[in-house]
# Entry
Amino acid sequence: MLFDSHAHLDSASFEDDRAQVVERARDAGVNLVMNPSVDLESSSKVLKLVKEYEGIYGAVGIHPHSASTMDDMTMSLLEGLAKKEKIQAIGEIGLDYHYDYSPRPVQKDCFIEHLRMARRLGMPVIIHDREANEDVMRILREEKAFETGVLMHCYSGSAELARQYVRLGASISIAGPVTFKNARKLVEVVKTVPMERLMIETDSPFLSPVPNRGKRNEPAFVRFVAQRISLIKEIAFEEVAAVTSGNAKAFFGI
Ligand code: NI
# Structure
């Protein structure tokens, strides 16, 4: 059994064949999927998805790209959605200094508001950190986010930073780039992080792993990430599948 800890099945790229995508995931042994949201609209879509499909769980929140859409009304609506059944986390939230689609001060405000909401609700958080390592770490510490659970999604930082996160109690989720030829840094990360803190994800529809690089990604492909990790860690594929699924279930309270 595999658990894809991050897939955007609510995305428009799955509009035409979502049911088949979910079926292919099941055929590939991917029985559980965490579907994070990127804004209020996507959070409502995710709520529908989790009602429709067994095995799909959700998170609600505003992605740093959309941080400018945050206001009091949106936050109170999101807090309502966060309490619904099968919504197990707040995310994805964080900072993105690569694209800077929302001004950095606005991104920080939005990130902090979500962390406070997660803390009020006692829920774990799914973190997006792109080229904002220092600010993300500082804010997570200041807001005591590690007390309710932190998952670093599609991890792209150094092995040293991963080690710090593990020490603070966070988990690290590895996505398709670990299968790419130039994945030296990520390979080091996988070697560094103990199995009990690792999760695997696709980040569908983005970042398809080899051998599907460049195509639309889907949860069934998470097995390629698991295969790569089994080679790096020199343990059986089945063990990678079982341990990462168990980690994700425990983290999300499933
Ligand atoms: Ni994502």
Remarks:
- The CA atoms of residues 38 and 63 lie 4 Å apart.
